[in-house]
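Sharing in case it's useful to others searching the archive later.

Someone asked me privately for the predicted structure of FAD-binding PCMH-type domain-containing protein, so I'm posting the question and my answer publicly. Question first, with the sequence:
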Amino acid sequence: MMASLLNSSVFLFILSLYFSVSRATLSSILEVTPGSEDFISCIESNSNNFTSDSQLIFTPVNASFLPIWQVAVQNTRFLKPSTPKPSVIVTPMNETLIQTALYCAKKHGYEIRIRSGGHDFEALSYTADVPFVMIDFTNMRSIDVDVANSTVWVQAGATLGELYYAISQKTNTLYFPGGVCPTVGVGGYIGGGGYGNLLRKYGLAADNALDVRFMDVNGNILNRKMMGEDLFWAIRGGGASSFGIVLAWKLRLVPVPEKVTVFLLNKTLEEGVTEIFYKYQYIASTFDRNLHIRTQVFSEYIGNSTMKTIRILFEGIYQGPSDTLLLVLDENFPELGVRKEICEEMTSVQSTLVFWGLPSSTPIEILTNRSAITKLNFKGKSDYVRTPIPITGLRKIWSKVMENDESGLLMINPFGGRMNDYSETAIPYPHRVGVLLQVFKSVYFDGQTSDTTPTSLSRLAWLQSLEELLTPYVSKHPREAYFNYNDLELGVGNANYEEASVWGERYWKRDNFKKLIRIKAKVDPHNFFRHPQSIPVFSSPLSSFK
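And my answer, the predicted structure tokens:
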């Protein structure tokens, strides 16, 4: 595999400068870090080069421990002293150290958490209420783009931004159908499905995963052929960390034009946005597959008055020139009023910048600069809409949004197109045929010292009231939710199928959830890889549950 964008040795040098990496001897670690001696001693006993490996292992005594843990906490809601932290952080540069860490964690009773980018909505990749070892893939980020075969091998620690940048350095006519947040880690993202602006043309990120390097609970390194199709099915959308450790993905690159067209257009209540959005629900999922229009719903004050309005931002991307886009919109959605002067033609990598809120002129190197991308402080939830919401329902939603103190956001993506070509059992991600819209609802805690201040609690209560208001208008039996937007408020019970189904069927639906449970029982029968919403293992056979 080709060298990473950031040469690993250079990265470690920089890391040592910024974090003052401790090069403590084993004896000094044992002296000041009670509780992790057994794990460290095990690593020493089983390492071929402990002097080197020890520089990649951090305990709370190390000055660099907290900065390393903090640097990839993407949701700053969890950057507080009360958040449980690892007993040990391992930042491997090779697969051998991961095998050793896995062996030692199992031997000495530690759980493992696996962090590639740190975007876990509930911090499950870097927190736990039990002693745990965190494997942080920050040093395993190599990307090998093969333009001739339209594929790329990506190590688990690489981010989407680094992937897009690497592709753009080789070609402007291939891209990967992933999301628009540059700091999302590839390893976990594909494990949960992964969607983006190309989903209507090319499906999910996981639909375009071709192969994998994967470590099972016994430390064996497997590829797709070696693991078999059942396990390969499970780790593409079923939460790969329930089954083992993704080391790298082989991904399909898809053809894109040299230039795509992007437009951004705001509409308010006073400009008839309710009727425009009502039509949007019917047609956004049936457009030409080259067109994707995301919407964001905000409330804001009108000028300097005390009156509020709703503003909806329509963000469109078309896989082709602006003239063709305008023909499509004039035929299907003239009410939106898109004009040529608000259309901008740009490369696919530039469009990623724009959808993340940056100007298209921003140097694309920013995609490789993790510290340059703003972190967020929020609580989020997801829903799927299968039947258009009536005008009366939209007005109720707008009223609820206007009750918020401008900390709330609805982000809505249309489905249809290529998504309708897959059955809901093609991979564990089931939200396919019939889904019109995916809705992401969130509140932000900007200006608050924590998520427990009176203002923060009021915002969380508002989010819950919005959740209740939406109930008649979103999917039912089950009320579907997106696993990559994990939400512990859906439930965490896993003593039996009845408990686990409360949240598991919302993420995967019944048939997929049961299949995931059967596969889990085969590949990790003692449930070593676990967290509050991991695929469970039951003492009774699954066949005993209805």
